[in-house]
Design a protein that fits this description.
single chain
Amino acid sequence: MEFSAQQIAAFLNGKIEGDPDVKVSNFSKIEEGKPGTLTFLANLKYAHYLYDTKASIVLINNDFVLEQPVSTTLIRVENAYAALALLLNMVEQTKAKKSGVDSTAFIAPTATIGEQAYIGHFAYIGEGVKIGKGCRIYPNVYIGDRVTIGDNCILYPHTTIYEQCVVGNNCILHAGCVIGADGFGFAPEGESYKKIPQLGNVIIEDDVEIGANTTIDRAVMDSTIIRKGVKLDNLIQIAHNVEVGEHTVMAAQVGIAGSSKVGRHCMFGGQVGLAGHIHIGDNVTLGAQAGVISDVQEGSTLLGAPAFNAKGFMRSSAIFNRLPEMYRLIGQMQREIEQLKKEQTK
């Protein structure tokens, strides 16, 4: 499908600078822009590409100031990145959606499936399962007994949801993620360990997206809870009885130990690690590979392992690079002090 700059600007409530009739049928990166494509500029370190890009339309922020003329058509918007997301979602909605139940899928007699659902090859849906309308269950998905899934959810291939777990509306679970496996609970017993049964479940609220091969363990008792709007990247481990607050986002390989509580609107970089039984306040930012072993106050920004205040971490990092030189100077000063002491005792 083709769209003109005028149509796109009307959809985004943007302002055109250039040819309103130019048309695009695809997207491109600004540094690799081609005629007939649309791109965007949100990060200023890519600004120099704007003046050479071959893309036909570029989305830019309202406050961006041109340093020289451009050959492309610009559409100014409040937030170019958010505007691009709107366009990508619009295109996604135009794609044909699969429907129907494949003959190779197993659906237990007591399961209920909502209208306009798609159930792919070799999917397994257990006893008492409830699946809402408009869901897409891709091949080889496993849904255990008495699981509840809301409306308009997407479960990609090899997703596994253990028994009694709950998934809200408009959730996306990517390939290979596991919801509701046993938490890591073992009690020392002599020279061995005795398994502690994990009798709770996992509750995932509305509008949550979970990345490929991410695992969320069921609670020992009660529930492990992922609140509304949370976005989890690939290869994340959420342990038993953890609670993640609304609209928190986590990058790949984050690991959260049991019974920790994470607040709302937090941002975790890749490979962040949280110890068990700690509380992270709202609006906390943890930089990549931060290791957190104690409670974190609301609004904090931490780096390092063990994690501490970001400004302090940056100052410490600058000093760390000078440690060999400082060590040599301290040794020299110690030798000079010893020499002075010897001279004073003569």
